[in-house]
Design brief:
binds nicotinamide-adenine-dinucleotide, alpha/beta, 412 residues, Rossmann fold, 2 domains, 15 helices, eight-stranded mixed β-sheet
Length: 412
Amino acid sequence: MSFDVISIIGLGYIGLPTAAAFAARRKKVVGVDVSQSAVDTINKGEIHIVEPELDMLVHAAVTQGHLRATLIPEPADAFLIAVPTPFCDGNKPDLSYIEAASRSIAPVLKKGDIVVLESTSPVGATEKMSAWLANCRPDLTFPQHAGEQSDIRIAHCPERVLPGHVIRELVQNDRVIGGMTRRCGELARDLYQIFVQGDCILTDARTAEMCKLSENAFRDVNIAYANELSMICDRLDINVWELIRLANRHPRVSILQPGPGVGGHCIAVDPWFIVDSAPDEAKLIRTARGVNDGKSHYVIEQTKRLAARFKAPVIACLGLAFKANIDDLRESPAIDIVNQLADERVADIVVVEPNVAVLPEALRGKVELTSLTSAIEAADIVLLLVDHREFKDINRRRLQSKLLVDTRGIFS
Ligand SMILES: NC(=O)c1ccc[n+]([C@@H]2O[C@H](COP(=O)([O-])OP(=O)(O)OC[C@H]3O[C@@H](n4cnc5c(N)ncnc54)[C@H](O)[C@@H]3O)[C@@H](O)[C@H]2O)c1
C-alpha cells in the first residue's frame, strides 16, 4: 500500500514530530488537533512546543506543501492517533481522548484504511478503540469481527522517544508493532518503514501495549530503588552520590540517580495502568510508585527543617520541569514541592526555570519567577530540583553562605 495521505490525530510532543517525519519523506500529511492555536501555529510553519530541530522540519514541511493542520479530520489512507492518555481519580487510565479522537475520524474512514493507536495505553485499549470505531461505522467491518478480512486495519505502535532527542530517536529507535491481526501488523510495519530506520518488530496489540507499560514501569522501579537508597543514606550519614558511583564500579550493577520524585506524563503515569489491570499481582510496581511519590514529601520535610532555622527565610527553588533541559512541566514533582512549600508558607519562595517564560497556573500568585542571579542572591536556602545545564554552571562560591538541598547531586 502506498499510503498517499497520512493523518496524525493530536499534534503534540509525539504527533507533530511524527507528522513532520512523514512529511520529510514527501508524504501528504494532514495533522488534526482540537487546539485552534496549535493548528494556526503549525499552518504558519511554526511550532508550539520545544523540541530541537522540530522547528526547521515543520517549517520545511509546511512551506513545501507536505504538511497541513486542521481542526476537522479529513479522509486519509492511514490515521495515527497520538492524543493524551492521562490518569483520572483513583489512578485509573483516562481513555476519553482516544475515544473522542476515534469518534472524530470514524465518519471519514473508508475500506482499506489503517488506524494506528500510538498513545501509551492500558492493555485492551486498542480493542476498545476498534469497538468505538465499529460502533460509529456499522457499514464497515473491523478486525474483532472480520479478522484478516476486515475493511479497516487496526494496530498499536507505542512511541518510546526521549524528549530533547525526538527527531533522531523517531527515525533510529526500534518499533514494536502490535496488529489486531497479522495483516494489520504487516500494514502498520509498511507504514512506519516510510521513515523508521530501526527494526519494526511485529507482535499482537495487547503485547505491544504491555511492552510500553513494562518499559516505563521498569524505569520507575529502578528509580525507586535509587530514591529509597538516598533516604537510607541520609539516615546513615553517607553521601548517596558517592555510594552509587562506587557501587556502579561492579560490572553487573547499574544503579540510577535519585531525584525529588518522578515526573513526566509517562513514567509517573504508566505504571498505574498496570496496577489498575492487575492490582493483586502488581505489588512491586505499586510500591515503587509510592516510594517515588514519597520522595517528594521527604524533600519538602527536609526543606522545612532547614527553613525553621530562619526568622524570615527565602528559598530559591531551581527548576520546575520534570527533567533536565526541557520545558515540559507535566506531572513534575518540582511543581508539587514548590506548591506545597508555598501553601504552607514555609518561606518566601523565588523560582528559576530557564525553559519557561511564565509560571504554571498552579504557582501563579504564590511564588515569583526570577533570574538565577537574583534568586541565589536573595536565598537563604537553595533547593535544587532539576539538573538543568544553567544550574550546573553556578559558581560554587556563590553558594558558600547558603544552605543547600541538592536533590540531583550536582553540587555534591
Ligand atoms: N511526550 C513524550 O515524550 C511521549 C513519549 C512516549 C509516549 N508518549 C505518549 O504519546 C501520547 C501523546 O503524548 P504527547 O506528549 O504528544 O501529548 P501532548 O499533550 O503533547 O499532545 C497531544 C495533542 O492531542 C491534542 N488532542 C487532544 N484530544 C484530541 C482529539 N480528540 N483530536 C485531536 N487532537 C486532540 C491536544 O490538543 C494536543 O495537542 C500519550 O499517550 C503519551 O503518553 C509521549
